[in-house]
Amino acid sequence: QVQLVESGGGLVQPGGSLRLSCAASRSIFSFNAMGWYRQAPGKQRELVATITSEGSTNYAASVKGRFTISRNGAENTVYLQMNSLKPEDTALYFCKAQQITGWHTRDYWGQGTQVTVSS
Questions:
Q1: Are the CB atoms for 46 and 60 separated by under 8 Å?
Q2: What is the mean pLDDT of residues 102-116?
């Protein structure tokens, strides 16, 4: 069973920065892609950023230029560096790992880490 453990969330003032970490229980290169998603109260979960096993990245328009997804294979960890944070970035942030085998896709989720942007 794959485990994903997020950390790094917290309370930060607008304009501040946080770095989220997602530690996987096995090699992150065993997944086709990993990513960060977020869910604010009363809203649907939305994609924030993804990174494929080849290293290609993708960002939501709302975070492009402010957030950066990266990874450390030796530590089996994916990061999300968040700069210039805004109150609308407040949400529960989840890490996801996706594995595609033939026609079968399996997604693994972490428990989430809370990010609150407020003065």
A1: yes
A2: 96
